[in-house]
Amino acid sequence: MEEDPYRSARERMVEEQLRGRDIHDPRVLAAMRAVPRHRFVPEDLSSQAYADGPVRLEHGQTISQPYIVALMSQLLELKGEETVLEIGTGSGYQAAVLSRLAHQVYSLERVPELASTAAQRLKELGCENVAVYERDGSAGLPEHAPYPAIIVAAAAPRVPAPLMEQLEIGGRLVVPVGSQEGQTLELWRRKSEADFSQDRIAPVAFVPLLGEHGWSTDERPFWAW
Length: 225
Ligand code: SAH
Description:
The protein has helices spanning 7-19, 26-34, 66-75, 93-99, 112-124, 161-165, and strands spanning 55-56, 62-63, 83-87, 104-109, 130-134, 147-152, 167-179, 182-190, 196-204.
C-alpha cells in the first residue's frame, strides 16, 4: 500500500469537524476516516481537501463540506445491507463514503464527463459496489426501485415525485430543498404507501438539481455556481 500523506489531516477532520459536532454513528466516522478525500479534488487543490468547507470544482460541481457529507450519511441510518440511490455523483466522494456503509450504491450524474471521471476514480479506489449512471437523476432509477435510502446532493425546487415513489416503505430520503436564495436539508420517511413524514434538519447551500423534476435548465444562467 502506498503511504498516505493525508492520514493525519483526515484524522483531524474526523475529530474536529465531525465528532466535535454531532456525528456519532461509528460506521459513518470510520468511513470518513477511510476514504481519501484528496483523491476526489484536482491535485493543485489537495491541500484544501480536508478543510472545513466545500471545494468548488469544474463543471459547476462542488464536493460538499465533510460535515454535510457525514450528516447526510448519518441521517440515512445505514446498517450495511441496503441499496442506496444517490443523485448527483459529482466527484464521487459521497458515493465512496456510502460504498462503505451500504451493500450497493447506484449513483446518477447528468454531466457525462463527471460521470465517467467519477466512475474511473471509484474503480481505482476499489469501490466495486458503486455503479455510476449518466442520466437525469431527478427521475430516479426505476429499474432497481424501491430503495431503503435515497440521497440527493443537489438542491431541488421540491422533492421530485419519482424519488418519493421509488422510496421503500420504511425508507429514508435526504434532500436539500430550495433555491439559490436558501435551502433546507430535509429528511423524509415513508411510513406507508401514502404516508410520509418530513423533518427539517439544517440550512444548506447546494448547486441546483437540474432536469425534468428539478430546476429547468433555462434557469441555469441565473444560478451559475
Ligand atoms: N456528491 C458529490 C457532490 C455533488 S455536486 C460529491 O461528493 O462530489 C452536485 C452534482 O449534481 C453535480 O455534479 C451536478 O452535475 C449533479 N446534478 C445536478 N442535477 C442533476 C440531475 N438531475 N441528475 C444527476 N445529477 C445532477
